[in-house]
UniProtKB/TrEMBL annotation:
Residues 1-16 form the signal peptide. This is Apple domain-containing protein. It comes from Caenorhabditis remanei (Caenorhabditis vulgaris). Keywords: Signal. The keyword Signal applies.
Amino acid sequence: MLKLALFLALFTTVVAWNRQNHFGNPCYLCSCFTVYTDRDVAVPLRPYAMAIDGYDTTEDRCLATCQRDKRCRAAVYGMVGGRSVFTCEFYERFNTKSAPVYTTYVNMYMKRSSECQLSISHLSSVEMIPADNSSLKRRAKLEKLIGRKNPFLG
């Protein structure tokens, strides 16, 4: 009985280790993108699509979807909190001079001009929906907070 319990524990650990999740797995497709860590797209720009369920999306699935989509020029993935927890947004255009705005726990990924040599066949695509105003509201709120004066700094 003890051997069976140890076998089941080992088997579940191996299955959980190889499962795609939000934490701990290194980014597989990051070499195919220019990565801006702790950056988000500036407020006036609106994504053309976003993941229907950001919580079920991983970083690599978000990037693989952008890689497959011809319209996608950049993707934003990160932990945004609230009810959504995670977000995955797709942009077809943006201004590189004003686009990267500092935002914690959110990364911006721009497609490289060269073709990605990594295989993405094992990564499923994210189910996308047309973007709503939730992305704009989230970014406008963060930009407003960044502009506020810290009362503890005097």
